[in-house]
Amino acid sequence: xxxxxxxxxxxxxxxxxxxxxxxIGQARALAAALGGVTEVALLGRAxxxxxxxxxxxxxxxxHPALEEYVPEAxxxxxxxxxxxxxxxxxxxSNATIGLDLGAALSVHWDAPLAAYVxxxxxxxxxxxATAQILGGKVLAEVELPGRRGIATLLGGAFGADLGAxxxxxxxxxxxxxxxxxxxxxxxxxxxxPDGGDIDISAADLLVSVGRGIESQENxxxxxxxxxxxxxxxSASRPVVDAGWLPKSRQVGQSGLKVKPRxxxxxxxxxxxxxxxxxxxxxxxxxxxxxxxxxxxxxxHYGTTLDLFxxxxxxxxxxxx
Amino acid sequence: MRIVVPIxxxxxxxxxxxxxxxxxxxxxxxxxxxxxxxDAQALEEALLLKDAGGAEVVAVGLADDPxxxxxxxxxxxxxxxxxxxxxxxxxxxxxxxSGTRTADRAALLAAYLDAQPADLVITGVQAADDLDGQLxxxxxxxxxxxxxxxxxxxxxxxxxxxVRQEFAGGRSHELQVQMPAVIGVQSARQxxxxxxxxxxxxxxxxxxxxxxxxxxxxxxxxxxVRRVHRPEASGKAEMMTGSAGEVxxxxxxxxxxxxxxKG
Lengths: 320, 263
Ligand SMILES: Cc1cc2nc3c(=O)[nH]c(=O)nc-3n(C[C@H](O)[C@H](O)[C@H](O)COP(=O)(O)OP(=O)(O)OC[C@H]3O[C@@H](n4cnc5c(N)ncnc54)[C@H](O)[C@@H]3O)c2cc1C
Ligand SMILES: Nc1ncnc2c1ncn2[C@@H]1O[C@H](COP(=O)(O)O)[C@@H](O)[C@H]1O
Known about the structure:
The complex is a heterodimer of chains A (320) and B (263).
Chain A: E1 5-8, E2 11-12, E3 15-16, H1 18-34, E4 38-43, E5 57-61, H2 71-85, E6 89-93, H3 96-108, E7 113-123, E8 126-133, E9 138-144, E10 149-153, E11 170-173, E12 185-191, E13 205-209, H4 219-229, E14 233-235, H5 237-241, E15 262-266, H6 272-278, E16 283-287, E17 301-303, H7 307-319
Parallel strand pairs in A: 1-4, 1-6, 4-5, 5-11, 6-10, 7-10, 13-14, 13-15, 15-16, 16-17
Antiparallel strand pairs in A: 2-3, 7-8, 8-9
Chain B: E1 2-6, E2 9-11, E3 33-35, H1 37-53, E4 56-62, H2 68-78, E5 82-87, H3 89-92, E6 95-96, E7 99-100, H4 102-115, E8 120-124, H5 135-143, E9 147-157, E10 160-166, E11 172-178, E12 181-185, H6 197-206, E13 209-213, E14 224-229, E15 238-239, H7 244-257
Parallel strand pairs in B: 1-4, 1-8, 4-5, 5-13, 8-12, 9-12
Antiparallel strand pairs in B: 2-3, 6-7, 9-10, 10-11
Bound molecules: flavin-adenine dinucleotide (FAD) and adenosine monophosphate (AMP).
Residues 34-35, 37, 40, 74, 192, 194-195 of chain B line the site of adenosine monophosphate.
């Protein structure tokens, strides 16, 4: 076993994801505390190693089944990497890939897993994670017992590390395990996002609405405000899942990341997956009847007024 | 085709969550428990498969979950063919900050599925209190089945399932997976159907809920909870007070100062 910290790199279209650099940033801090180095597992695209400057070691596995993310292929390859490199800690995103692989690796690699992690530290040799549970309403400080562990990290909770580690990482190759030739699943197609709608990530001002709006008919009131302000209407995931607004309006982990000058949030609780998409807005103004709503943890201004009382007043004031 | 849908009761997040006096968990006594919203999506996806081509849908819960009977009867009222409540969780290990740990939950469900296998296990991508990770891939690992999570649509045919796995920004992968398999659902192809209270009462009166004792399996070392607390950050926002008209005036002032409202 080593005292190294390993990160699984995520990439699409030949580009390493922003989230990967956040994981690496955290891995470097932990590796320094443990006296180890930062390793990045790079599956299927060894040609992207040059993008992983901040890592000390890049561990590549090459196989046609790994070109795009396929859960079973990634799991088998990563288990081979873990067996050969024996890191002290493995860091994954708390997004699709980490949610998909984390718990299975926990069983097969026999390591405890902490999910929804927003902070990680080494405390006298022990790995201690802070997990944001119950939609961000409660923080749990947990210790990962044993000699290895896995954590899935919330996006946007950690700063990205874009700095290069001296001469660039050492690149090592691990032979693909035989199991990659006998997978029980295959990739049929890659589907891109729907285009055509307005781009909410380009707006200076967003009027954003969550489940507090209760129904499609009620969207009318916030739409009126958006029109008066000349701003697009955006939303949290449940509003989009209900079919009330198109996917192109969804803000968050599985939607779009936005950074407007002002983000107006009505009836949005502020779950970690939503915050990931809007917490870097220059100014956030939140309206939520629940004073304990996590959105107030990132908002600059807040009100616990009922959105159905506030929004019509806003429309009046904007129209002058 | 037999589809098993594990469902979990979680605290209703609309309510205030009180912490337990020893600060290692939450005070569950006065909370309302509801089905994890992603399990409601998973049940809907399973019922859509049943509607499309016929399937036996079995909803499974743990007897230790609060209000689980109500949630299982709701599943029956929505169209599940059977509902099963597993006992044995108490024997499996200590509770986490919000009930049975996912690792123990997975071990109990794996014992059930070993005895009564399913062609598809469809459950929610996560539950809001999954401290030690998510159920779908943990369960798949214990059963040695293939798994795909964060799924937004399932179709079946010819011994395999075709699923859409969602990534950031509206991108997705279509994967073909051999059955049996475990699927974690992010959202169903349509919003979960509604079960009128009269139908739920009928299901209760019909009493179609069975109970089954399963042997607890050791789930390995779990996390050690040191402390739970509320986020200190709540208090960061400057709270605006006054009538709706006054607050609206303040907000418009902020927008005007940034040139986002003319005049
Ligand atoms: C893999 C994954 C990816 C996800 N990706 C995203 C994503 O990209 N974007 C996203 O948003 N979510 C995402 N989610 C979902 C996320 O976990 C939450 O479920 C979601 O953000 C909650 O949306 P909400 O805040 O609108 O609803 P809720 O959490 O239900 O909050 C509604 C809020 O409205 C308030 N309210 C109610 N009535 C009123 C009123 N009259 N006036 C004022 N306030 C009121 C309530 O107090 C409550 O806080 C994802 C989840 C998973 C598992
Ligand atoms: N919009 C929603 N908000 C919160 N919980 C929901 C929502 N939709 C469904 N659920 C959950 O699913 C259960 C069944 O709801 P329904 O589908 O409305 O019968 C409820 O008790 C909730 O726990």
